Task: structure prediction
Amino acid sequence: MTELNHDLPDSESYHPAASSLAGHVDPAVMAELLSIRSSIDNIDATLVYLLAERFKATQKVGFLKAAHRLPAGDPGRETAQIARLRRLAEDAQLDPAFAEKFLNFIIGEVIRHHEAIAEDHHNAAGRGPGGDGGGPASSAAGPTTPLNA
Result:
């Protein structure tokens, strides 16, 4: 997996024609490469915004689960989602194993967020009026699974 590099230039200094290939390949090939990369850049930007929207929705789920002391994971939902996305991947001619790995990564992050929301919620509830702060916060999140959606 690629490590995050915090020394990279920010998006405002990004130059779409930046390439270590410039000057080493035929200009027509470079122009075609840059055109294709421009489409990839647009898709990447869309993915970032779609993931942000997805995490806004899953955050709402996390608050709802915390308020009702539901577990962070839902194995039945997770299994159904993985099967559904594998079928979608096949239909889209995307490697289903890759799609499953990607979804599992997202689900792992969602569970981590849900557990943090539950802990914050239950810690805050324990400090409320009449609360002694000693509530069973660890049992509120329920069993952790590697999947969630």
Observations:
- Residues 20-140 form a domain with the Chorismate Mutase Domain, subunit A fold (CATH 1.20.59.10).
